[in-house]
Amino acid sequence: MEEIPFSDFKKLDIRIGKVISAEKVENTDKLVKLVFDMGDHERQVVAGIAEIVEDPAELIGKEMPVLINLKPRMLKGEESNGMILAVNVDGRPTLMSPEKQVPPGSPIT
């Protein structure tokens, strides 16, 4: 990947979101619709993590990093207003969460 200047990285608004609802997107094998508590608002994100989550409801209460200033896009009829950050291990996503509980909306710095 090409290197980017620090000023480009500073454009990313990544915050910790706490999952308040999670369900599979109908008629898809990979997509899960997540709603996050972001502290001052709720945000819906559609993520390709169904293959690693047997029951999406297990994610409720989990905290994870969310890129919140990504332009919204439609995925299989659901609007996604951000992107969760995950680690790619052998082509499969692995979810990340803070070492300890933090307030929803806490910025990643």
From TrEMBL:
Record note on quaternary structure: Homodimer.
| Alphabetized UniProt keyword annotations | Aminoacyl-tRNA synthetase, ATP-binding, Cytoplasm, Ligase, Nucleotide-binding, Protein biosynthesis, RNA-binding, tRNA-binding
Record InterPro entries: NA-bd_OB-fold, tRNA-bd_dom, Tyrosine-tRNA_ligase_regulator
- What SUPFAM superfamilies does the annotation carry? Nucleic acid-binding proteins (SSF50249)
A Gene Ontology molecular function term for this protein is: ATP binding
Task: Check the record and name the Gene3D superfamilies matching this protein.
Answer: Nucleic acid-binding proteins
> So what does this one do?
Is required not only for elongation of protein synthesis but also for the initiation of all mRNA translation through initiator tRNA(fMet) aminoacylation.
Which parts of the sequence belong to the TRNA-binding domain?
8-109
Mind listing the GO biological process terms from this record? Answer: translation
Q: Does the keyword Ligase apply?
A: yes
Which PROSITE patterns does this entry report, sorted A to Z?
A: TRBD (PS50886)
Q: What's this protein's name?
A: Methionine--tRNA ligase
Q: What is its EC number?
A: 6.1.1.10
Q: Name one Pfam family in it.
A: tRNA_bind
Leading EC class: ligase
Please give the superkingdom of this protein's source: Bacteria
